[in-house]
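Sat 14:20. Reprocessing the chain from the morning session after the first attempt stalled halfway. Input below, unchanged.
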Amino acid sequence: MDFSKNIQETIRSMNQALDVASNFDVVYRTLTIGGRKACAYFIDGFTKDEVLLKVFQVWEAIKPEDMPEDAHGFSKQYVPYGEVGLIKDSDAMMVQLLTGITCIFIDGYDVCLTLDCRTYPARGVSEPEKDKVMRGSRDGFVETLIFNTALIRRRIRDPKLTMEILSAGESSHTDIAVCYMKGRVDEQMLSMIKDRIQNVHVDALTMNQESLAECLYPSKWYNPFPKFKFSERPDTAAASILEGNIIILVDNSPAAMILPSSVFDIIEEADDYYFPPVTGTYLRLSRMVISLLTLFLTPTWLLLMQNPDILPPWLEFIKLSEEPFVPLFFQLMILEFAIDGLRLAAINTPSMLTTPLSVIAGIVLGEYSVKSGWFNSETMLYMAFVTVANYSQASFELGYALKFMRMLMLILTALFNYWGFAAGVILSVCAVVFNKTIAGKSYIYPLIPFSWSELKKRFFRGRLPHGEKG
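Finished this time. Tokens:
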């Protein structure tokens, strides 16, 4: 579709391209500006009506002799609004219109005048459910991109903070904001990330950040350890930007993608920095130890139960108090799947029923399943610890990566005993060691390559110098 100075031709072409007769939410309104016929197009529900009303009132007072010769002069002289643009490309105009921008055509002008008076349905910037902190900020990202960028700008008032807007998806044209600090970011990695986003050839980013993540890092899908850190906290995103990282915000998603991210970055949480150094160090080390326990506890216990003769006297209390009717391996695997089943059920349960149903499920699985002989009480105890310990860190992706490695170790230990347990440990270590960040660097830096000064910062929380996390 080409723009025409004849307003009737433009209206005919626009109505045909937008199928106005079928789409009830595509609104167009004809008006007169300075004796010339004009037409405004916008999407119902995306526009601030009071802004349009005030602009139209100004235009009604324009006299024919005061109309400028071109659209550029008109926008400078008679548009009392901040976000104004002129577009000649019809495809770009159509995308902007469908994102909520108001497009105005005036007889005699062969360009489109745009007013960005968008408003999106949005929820409040309340604290995210998953990334809660004991002390600190209580705001969180939402599904509206401009709100999320504003939350970061509020924390970093520096002109070096850059937020570039890109888009991906041939049908969705999803807005993507790339946020970074000039002078601190790795320019080579930044260029690589922007090139990959611009070269993404997909119909739509239906799953928001996950769709984009799979396009940015398409290889090694079989390694479950996450390549990106996701956070719904603006303070975490702002701190990562100040450290030289890149933040990617996707419209319709309440999570920020932080990259590059190593396993130590993913384990870190905001609470580590909202408390004094001693308390922050304790919380961080506790989280690391608990994460290791979730991986090794049940496979190690299964190995000891298969070989009771290697148990030292001081550990004999971990032996089974009753003879199992179902082999321990099957008990552990059934519980692994049952826990995920309960988690999925809790997500889909109405909030008013979550608590009573959780109590019922806990009683049935905890007491009656032991009495019926399906499970031993020791098996229930260790799996209960593993389940609760999984929530000690905020990353769902890391939690499931540890779960998959744990299940692999259980299978290998049940099949090959000592050799299977050793093979499971080696495979788990290799999955971490040989993993790479999106920048192609070591996933476990500063262990490999080794850097003692950086390693101390990962394990021990020191005092906060200016410009770092806080």
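The mean pLDDT is 88.
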